[in-house]
Structure prediction request, 299 residues.
Amino acid sequence: MTRHALPYRVPSDEVVTAGDWSLVTEDGEMPMPEALPDWDYHMDLHLRRSVRVDLDRARSESGLPTDAALMLAAVWTATGSNLSGPAQHMRMAGTGTTTIVLDITLRGSDLGGLLLLDTALVLAERRMDSRPSAPRRAGSVLWSRRDALRLQGDAPQFPMAVIDFARTSFPDSAAWHLQISGSLESATMGSLLLLVNEKNTVTATAFENAGKPRPVDGIVLSAVYADAARSMIEHALGIDEFAEDADFPDGSLGATLLGLFTRLFPGQSITDVRLRKRQSPALFASDLQAAVKIFEVPR
Prediction:
């Protein structure tokens, strides 16, 4: 683990023993993999890890008083959504060695891209009676570790909401609608929103069962993903700035659209596909239908 030079004393790495993160599913608990290739935004993540802390050594090696309160905290950051937040924190005011189990659930709608999980042992409250070289401010980091999980679902990924279309300007009988807004430099999570009509029970139920879809749910989800991909590609091709040599920021709408285009049209240039769309829209529609593999049940 890389150690940064801090303006105060910190304990040795051996003071904290952190077990690996585990992914908790309906089928049990498994070691957290490096990537989840089948993940998408309707899949929440339940993660768990055990951390053992030698409180006495942590305090003494940091120059803290024996009664200094410490805290074990977990924080998450998602590069795809540009969101982050506290996952769990537990205050420790005892002595000796203690074991803490971090058990967190992260909403899939908040995630995307690379999920970074930071676990840290910090000073729980401000101490003015510490030695001059000891940490004093609440939140001073004594130990930390970063783990990563790549969320790389094959389907177009975006947040979604189930609403009553009768309360909107969309047709009451429409099953879904993909909203695309913002510039190509805007964050993907703030630019895409899949709206599902709650009155269309077939579609709404398919998303409810997305974790373990029935055959009919798989067909519906395939149709939604295919239509969303079509909307995204058509939106991208309608913008002149969308080109191979464009440099879009990571996590931006432009980067997401470029990644989707590359996956659907490997080896083809944006210029050629854009021209085919303009000159032969029917052929382009068939090409896109084949590229998104409509009615193939998502894995």
Summary: The mean pLDDT is 86. The two ends are 36 Å apart (CA to CA). The longest helix spans residues 215-237.
